[in-house]
Amino acid sequence: MKNALFQLFSFLGMFAAASTAFAVDSYRYAHVTIDTPWNIFIFLLFIILTPFILMAILYWYFANKKPDTNKVDEDNA
Predict the structure, then answer these.
(1) What is residue 48's three-state secondary structure?
(2) Where are the domains of the chain?
(3) Which ranges of the chain would DSSP assign to H, the alpha helix?
(4) Residue 4 CA to chain centroid, in angstroms?
(5) Angle at Cα 42 formed by Cα 23 and Cα 56, nearest 5°?
(6) Phi, psi dihedral angles at 57 (to 5 degrees)
(7) Cβ-based neighbours of 73, under 8 Å, separated by 6 or more
(8) pLDDT tens by residue, 47-76
(9) Is the whole-model pTM more than 0.90?
């Protein structure tokens, strides 16, 4: 119980001592331009579409292959 109270009060002390001036200055280093949303959109588009492209390639690769019947028989024996 003492440890939990100590953690709570130390967190509240650190929270009270935090300065918000660093958050105001962070916009100076962000360099947000009109191209930024497009860059984020294209980056996320590739991340989302890559698994679908990979699934299509793997489906096309394995679509006409027949399963090995000898291996299936060995598994059942």
Answers:
(1) helix
(2) 2-76
(3) 2-17, 21-25, 36-62, 69-76
(4) 33
(5) 135
(6) -65, -45
(7) none
(8) 999 999 999 999 999 998 877 766 655 555
(9) no
